[in-house]
Amino acid sequence: MKPIFKIIILCCSLSVTGVAQKKVQVIAHRGFWQSKGAAQNSIASLENADEIKAFGAEFDIHLTADSILVINHDKTIQGLSIQDTTYSALRNVKLSNGEKLSTAREYLEAAKRTCHIRLIAELKPHATPERDRYAAAELVALVREKHLQNRTDYITFSLEAGKELVRLAPEADVYYLNGDLPPAELKAMGFAGLDYHFDVMRKNPTWFDEAHRLGLGINVWTINDSTTIREMVDFGADFITTDKPDDVIKIYMK
Hints:
By secondary structure, this protein is of the alpha/beta class. Helix content is 34%, strand content 20%.
């Protein structure tokens, strides 16, 4: 099987509540932001995810109106539309922990100081296919400039951006988020796997076996309750994206 983010998933017997558990890899959604001194998509959340030895930290990327890559989940921040606003108008915006809104350059510079964590870069959809492709090219170039291409993988809801990331970063795993394509179609387009919401996977349980037969990896997002996590792991998920990475690690990565 081709794994997400270039690792081999192993099964191991773990005694948790008397049931053998599959070892899965844990991705901290927007970093480990539910931790001291952190905020969603903050550098502190990245550093804290690294400290607890999460497999990866997911973070979200937009292009500003003047084509600066910045880190934020929502399209807006403090009433400003990120993609329609220049970076000079955003540079002093503060996150809830007091950090300023990070550029992707600043975030990746911080990532170079972490020990081991994998960077799961979610490129947000933009207004046009041309803008999606441009954002993908800028992001891949920046990752290479920072010599982080061996630690970075990409996810996106935009099929246009995803195909461009596959083309530009053949060394990386690129996963598709939107949930509307079966594994065979993703394989044909060169994606490394699917990264779908748990409701999508519940409705399409055959996609677990199909993806693995095709050599694709499976990540499921964003799961915070133990019952759903166990359900997805039992189905065959290789990765779990969660807002509670510390809790999931205690169960599945002993």
